[in-house]
Structure formats: structure tokens, C-alpha cells
Amino acid sequence: MNTKFTSTQYYNFDSWQGYQKERVEVVKYIRDNAIKNVVFCTGDIHLFAAGDVVVDPKQVKSKALTGGATTYKTSDGKPVATEFVAGSITSQGLGDGGLTGSVAESTALYPKTSTGTYGILFSANPWLANGDTDRHGYARATASSTGFTCDLRRIKTIKADGGTNSSFLSQNDATKKTNGFRPKFSWTVAPGKPGLT
After folding, report:
1. Res 65 pLDDT > 60
2. What is the mean pLDDT of residues 137-156?
3. N- or C-end of the chain: fewer Cβ atoms within 10 A?
4. Which helix (H) or strand (E) holds 144?
């Protein structure tokens, strides 16, 4: 997936953003050759994200920030594959000072990116199903004939001693948005049905 801070500003150019022509070529090849069940598992941007891989992100219409249905301007905006991005285990994330450089954010036991900031990020990236810029952790994936399941395993905090299973945040608690913009952090991609939005 491309990642933008705003509708015109990309996050960095080390990933797909710096290789737009090549990215389009790869994704079109997957679509035009009807290659099914493609899932990208990535990381190294110090945040969690999950969403659709499309040929042309400009062809995805913004959906309601509450998670409404995504619509597409053309077929180039429809999902071709799915991508899961695992957060960092210990490296500074966007929410703990990486986004603003704030010392207060970098030392906070439980960082909290504002709803307004998430609103900007999701408006600029409508192909995202969810993201969390504040937490640390890893992704756990299982592939089988019935689908590809990915759990984004987020730890409450790395700034205190004593990790146990209770240190992990709920994967799909509709009553809590425990950081991230939406409550869901576990998905199963069905065979032959790319995308999460």
C-alpha cells in the first residue's frame, strides 16, 4: 500500500512511494494475469496497518471514517491483493514521538495519537482497513486452504516491566478503539477475494 500523511504528502520514499512505476507494473501484472490469493506481509515503518493493494490509489473513493463501504472510481481502484504491516517491537513509532518529535509523546507510558490525526491519515489513505501508530508488537499469520488470517498483536506498552498475555490488546473488541482508529485488528482473507475494505 502507499502511505500518505495528507492527500499530497507521502510518508517516505524507501517503500512503494519511491517506486510508483514499478509498483503499478507489479500490481497490474497480478491483476491482468488473474493471480489469486496474493497477500503482502511487510513492516519497517513502525506502525500497524492493514488494507487493500490497488493499481491506482487515486481511483479509490474515500469512505466514511466510521468504516463505511469503500467505492471505486474505476477498476484500477479495486483490490488486487491484501497487505498487512506489522508494527515495531521496540523502535520508536509515530505515536511515541515519531510523528511530531514531542518529548512528552516519546516518554508517555500509553501514547495516544489524536482522533483528528487519524482522521487525516484515513482520509488520505481510504484503502486502509485499520492502523495503529501508537503501539508496538508483531503480526501473527496463518495460511490454509480456507484463507489467510492475520492478527496484528499489539502490546499495551513497552515502557513498563512485566509482559504477560494480558499485556496484549484485544483484537476485535467493538466497544474499544484502544488506539488505532477502528476496533478491528484481526482479519481472514477468503480465497479468491482480495482486500479488506
Report:
1. no
2. 92
3. C
4. strand 136-144
